[in-house]
Structures are given as C-alpha cells and as structure tokens.
Amino acid sequence: MLNLNVYREVKSWKKPLHLSRTILAKNYLKLLPQIEIIGITGSVGKTLTQNAIASVLSQKYKVAVGDENLDPTFRIPKTILATKPWHQKMILEYGVEHPHDMDYYLSLVKPKIAVVTAIAPTHTKYLGDVNGVFREKVKLIESLPKTGHAVLNIDDTYCHKMAAKTKAHIWWFGQKAKDGVKISHYSQNLKGSKFRLHFNGQKASVSTKVVGRHQLTSAYAAATCGIICGLTLKQIAKGLSQTKPPQHRLNLIVTKNISIIDDSYNASLKAAIEAINTLLALGKRRPKVAVFGEMKDLGSLSKSQHQSLGAKVAKSKIKYLFTVGKVAQIIAKSARKHKFGGKIINVVTTNEAIKEIKKVVTHKSLVLVKGSRHAHLERIVYGLLHKSTKINCHHCGELK
Question: Domains (ranges, CATH) in the chain?
Fold first, then answer.
C-alpha cells in the first residue's frame, strides 16, 4: 500500500496525477526484470554520490539516472518511467525528510545495491533527532536481499549500526577500510581536485571538477560500486574524472572579478562545517568571505546547530561573515561570543546581501554562499555575477 503522506505538500488537485504516475511506475518496473537498482541514502552527499556512481558505471553499462534537482518523491517514479528496456543499471536517491518516507520509496522499488554516505542531524524538525534519522534511513539497508550489497561508510558510526541490520554482503568504504579502494595524493585548487586510486596492487589517477576533501566519500562509494559491478580501476578513474558536481553544491565559479563557492542548494551543520573547511583550503592567500542563510527543518535543534556553526566560524580565518535572515543571526551572535576576529554583517534580504558583499569583495576574494533552499541564496550568487544588484533570472525570478 502506497503511503500518500509523501504528497503532503502537493496541492490537492495535483495529487491524483502524482499517484497515477507512481502506480504506473510501479507496474512499468515489472517489465524491466533486467534492470539492477542502486539506491543511495544518507544525510549528506547523496546527489554527488549519485552522479559519481552514474558516471563510473556508464563506462561499462547503460545507466538510467534521475534529475538531480527534483525531490525524490517525484524523481523516483519519473526516473523509472524514463528508463528504457536497454538500460542495465538504475540509480535512485532515497532522500527522506519525514517518518515513513522510506516506506513509500521501498513500496515502489527496492534496490539490489544500497549505499549510505553518512548519518547526521538533518530534517530533525520531523525526524526528532539523529536517531530518528537513522531509524528512517536504515530501512533501505534492511530491505536488501541476501544476494544484495550494502555499501557502507566505515568512517561513520551509524553505518556500523546498520551493518547489523542486513543479511546482504557488506562492502566498507572510506579511509579506515582495510580492503577495497584506497585514495592517496589528494590535492585541490580553484580548478578542481586530483587524487590517486589504488586497488589490488593497481593504481590510476583522477582529475575532477569536484572540490572538498570530504567529498572523497562519494568517490570511495562510487569506486566501490564500480568494483561490485566488475569495472576495471582505469574505468572507475575515468568515470570519477568525468563526474559533474551537482548544481549549487560546492560549485566553483571563478571569473576575473570574483571567485565563488556556490553551495546554496541546501544546508546542515555537518555540510556547513565541511564547506568552511573547503573555503579555507582553497586559495589560501585569498581573503575569505562566508555568507550563511538559515539551516531549515532542524526543529528543537535549530538554535544549538546554528550556534555551533558560529563557533566554527569564530575559530577560522574568515575575514567577513554575512548572515541573511533572522534565524541566521544566531550564527553571527555565536561567532561574536566566541571572539570571531573578522567583521560581521547581518542583512535581512538577499538583495541587501548582494549590495553589502559587493562593497567588500575584490577580484582576489573567495566567497562561500551556503544556506537551505528556502533561503534562496542562489540569488546572491547570480547577483554577484552581474553588475546590477537587482536582476531577473530564469532560475529564481526577480531578486528581493
């Protein structure tokens, strides 16, 4: 029985359309017995991991993968319906926000290979706490058949708890994994990153547009899926080199006037801290500017999570901290409390942020823009890339 609560935010007149599409997708999938499903869940890095796995497996197989900017509630059915009889692998992102979301996805399609990136406090407004996040996401691992594969992050405590919940074969990935793919010689700059893969005595080099040392998690996971699916190390390295960073997720935008790390798609404390680490690691001599909006859907944890982010900023060598909106001011107050050495500027709107940021940045500045989708900080990115502070954009409409 399908869980119709997943359509809670859909207008009533649209619900029959989505329901019919879902039922059609479930039945259409029965006509594709040859397809192998790879499912991805976790609190961070799901979409990059999806893109990396798709890029790797595409070196050998015909792969079906969904629109990275579409909510999984709609993306999974649409991806299934877009799959052709000649496709061999289908990659699906099982992102959850509410209790029983995973039940809905699994009633529609269960994977043969399941990947977990990491578990952290996200959507705690609905899931309660990190344990609630774990309880919902572990269902993906529990759904695996005995002949399935659980691809788990050895560096994540909650993934170890998941290992006891499945009869499938467990593949550990990450820095501490004794077996499997190893990564060395990592370096990054404003053009991308480079590293070396090692497996069974072989090695291969990777050069990619993806930045952020923490995002090696996606490379580890994708490489492991490549091994499971019988690819050579050279094929895996080529696929990782061709991986495209998801839009508005740690995207580097370098122009002669400004350099931006666009991470405006979504935000959690764990992701925000890693974004700061990436900001500090890139262009070490450049003045650093951090722009933060609210981290949404944290419920009772919201205040403490924003305070923790402020404390992290205070310990850094960021020159300017901008906060956008009322809730994000908690970050500023916490940074000030923890004796942040830079300058703090609080603004209310994205348009105001653009004007104030333009007053302090130079062509040497490196600007991080990070916030949840509801904060619409992508408008700041577009505004900084245009001479006018008020623009019309097909992505977000007129700036406000």
Answer: 4-241 (3.40.1190.10), 251-398 (3.90.190.20)
